[in-house]
User: What shape does this take?
Amino acid sequence: MLNPQIEQVTQRIVERSKATRQAYLAKIKRQKRSAPYRTQLSCGNLAHAFAVCSQSDKTLLGQTAKPNVAVVSAYNEMLSAHQPYLDYPEVIRNVAHKLGATSQFAGGVPAMCDGVTQGQPGMELSLFSRDNIAMSAAIALSHQMFDGAAYLGICDKIVPGLLIGALSFGHLPGIFIPAGPMATGISNKEKAKVRQDFAQGKADQKTLLETESSSYHSAGTCTFYGTANSNQMLMEFMGLQLPGSSFEHPNSELRKPLTEAATKVLIDNIQNKQRSLAEIVGEKSIVNGVIGLLATGGSTNHTIHLIAIARAAGIILTWQDMSDLSRIIPLLARVYPNGTADVNQFHEAGGIAFVMQQLLNAGLLHQEVTTVIGNDLASYCTKPIIRQTPIIGMTNANIKEATQLEKSERIKWQSINIDTPDSSILAKTDKPFAITGGLTLLKGNLGKAVIKTSAVATEHQTITAPAKVFTTQEALLDAFKRKELQQDFIAVVTFQGPKSNGMPELHKFTPILGSLQDQGFKVAIVTDGRMSGASGKVPAAIHLTPEAIDGGPIAKIRDGDLIALDCQKGRLELIDSALLSNREAILKKSTSDQFSIGRELFSIFRHKVNSADLGASIFDYQDELTAIYSHKEDVVNG
Assistant: This one.
């Protein structure tokens, strides 16, 4: 039976979202057609749309009788995770042709790498790229030539952006197709040590570059459990991609057959007029996504992205929902930075299927939900294997028939049965790594923030220390170089919120704060910025709202003010609260420094974006939708 607290949280989300969800579903109903939309296109429209297609494809598209699959891809040559997507459109097209369908590359979406822009000015475009990707996906599908879509994306803002865009076309079936992680390089522990050594002057730049290059070394996703790999976990937990497909290597024998199988599933759903994205992404699947994030110790970026995704489907999710779920969801995985294993080792040990099985058995996950392959999440507690065709005793004719078996049918899913998991990577619900999911909502006179504690030792989860205030990462680094940080303190990094500078991830100072913690000092971070999936052993109260540029209390903190951060009690406070009422916020003068590296093009985003707890999004269509579909007749009849 489902845990009653999960049922309670889900039900309050349903009640809170009633008007916006109905409005969204009414919009989707209006977009549905009994026949493909391209039947309404003029001959000129169609001629433009299939001018470069083969004659056979033109015939099929002109008749509009067979499915036409859109491919929306984040392929580029710079991102190691997305480079493998080069050949996917052709693979998808070939399967479509074998099934009597067609496929067209509908459009590409931008895909920036946070690893490349980390600590650089370009990182200020990172979060905004999510909504830009959503708009790009919508443009790709706006031609309305398509009956369903395959979405090719993996990394940080790309999957959330694709899904937000896809939900605008939620009347169409869709599927997400991953490409897998790169092979394991040097250990994450060794990489972290060299980074800290470099920060302390114990390693030179050549050594650091060699170390980083040994970690990020080939095609595929980075192997630590950051936002990119958390994305893949979410897509499985939400039923949007095939079971067990997230963490197969780009060159594994399963990767191409999995892509072919995904295409076949999509086309089956189109032909059977079933499992549209609007049906799959509902309140239960959103809750399942949160639970997956908590049980695996995933990226804190999803405390923003999941809210934005949910709102795109008319569902209002809050940090309080996440925090309440965290109290009852056990931590079942130890993957770097929450452990020493990488995602390859996690996958080999049983991975997502094992975690999902444990949660379902304990009543900690919604089981009856729509997915791309059915209506029961238990089917995701499986791993894909190549179907072996016995040769002995077969006739030559049968052997020939077996070798001609469609590759999309060469995969079968096998139930996992792991009685004794690798205890360094996976845990059962009756003996978890932690009894909570490691994500806590902090509240107090400074506002509200989230903190990820799954990698923070218990003794570091409570700290009261004087503030040291910085307005940039560079200022904190300079203070470290001047040896001004050899003490207990809480680093308060201001003007890093979405309205201020696009909310870049703040990892430049992670190694130095980690080294100070290793030296015995009590240190922590409080910021209106982000830390993401690489949040580690230093307690970091992030996404603080209201942000500094809005005159939030964080802008009133001064050096030396005592701050209390308590993960156990969910508390974040300035000890002397009178200081907040007696002080004026110190506001940053201007954003004139944001006129380079394309940042000036995104000024409209900075002016329009909402707060982190609302998804840090530029989209505010919920009120508009509710107003349009406010009458019961409109909602019911579309």
In short: The domain at 439-592 is CATH 3.50.30.80 (Glucose Oxidase; domain 1).
